[in-house]
Amino acid sequence: MKTQMTERDKKLLVGMFIFVIIVAIGYWGIIPQIKAYNKLGTKIDKEEVTKNINEQKVSNLIFVESMCEEYEETMADNKAKFYDMMTEAEIDFLLTTKAVSRNLEAYSLSIEIPSSPSDRKAYIYSQLYQDQLEWDSQRELLYMGTDEDEEDLLGTGDDKSSNKETTEDETVDIWGNTDMVGENTDIYVAKVSISLGGDEAQLKAYLDDIMASEKKILITSFSWGEYRTQQAVEVPVEEIIQADEKAESEEGETTTTTKKTETKYELVTVKSLTITMEIYMCDKVE
Question: Taking the model in full, what pTM does it have?
Answer without folding.
Answer: 0.54
